Amino acid sequence: MIAHLRGTVHKLHPSEVTVDVQGVGYRVAVPIDVWEKLDEAAPAMLWISSYIREDRFDLYGFADRAGQRLFEELIKISGIGPKTALELCAVPRSLLREAAERQDGSILKNVKGIGRKTGEKLVLELRALLEKDPMILGTPAAEESRGASYDGDAIAALTSLGYDSPTAIQTLRNLPSELKTTEERVAAALRSL
Are residues 82 and 132 in the same domain? Predict the structure, then answer.
């Protein structure tokens, strides 16, 4: 199996890159937040998860081992395929932790591929995963110290306007903390998109 790739990154379309390793280009699907951080034609290293089936051999890349491990745990869940797992890996881990701890699937309803039933099942699986490995979604204190807070209504508003949830979450995360209302956050996010 391929554990990691180190080489020159060439961005294709959002969530997909090629990594040129000594003249061999590997097509790798990555979470949108990882894609945004990668620089075109710059060297990078991605941790790789291979997804092999009869009719496919896909590579999924992550900036760190924690993202890779989360992806591998998510695709073990019945009903969660690699594309949905990749979408979930782009969601801040503190939001996944919050959904699991509150047992609130509605927090994840704006993630592409997650409906009401899948969201309810997913929070149960995430809760079980947290009990097995409390560090898989990071520590709550680490997220709180960075001042992470998420406005579910603002995320819903942006996704209803056609933006994918990882992009909406990332945009909202980068907004100034003095914006207090959902309306202010959505307006500022739309200006920055």
Answer: yes
Residue 80 to residues 77, 84, 88, 121, 148, Cα–Cα distance (Å):
6, 6, 10, 10, 26
Cite the beta strand spans of the chain per DSSP E: 4-11, 16-21, 24-29, 42-53, 56-62
Q: Is the domain of 162 the same as that of 177?
A: yes
Tell me the pLDDT tens digit for each residue of 119-167: 889 999 999 999 998 888 876 644 443 434 567 788 878 888 888 777 8
Number of folded domains in the chain?
3
Structural domain for 44, as ranges: 4-62
pLDDT for 77-92, tens place per residue? 988 999 999 999 998 8
| Nearest to 93, CA basis, from 46, 150, 131, 41 | 150
Least Cα distance to 25 among 38, 15, 12 occurs for 12
With beta carbons less than 8 A apart as the criterion, state whether 188 and 178 touch. Answer: no
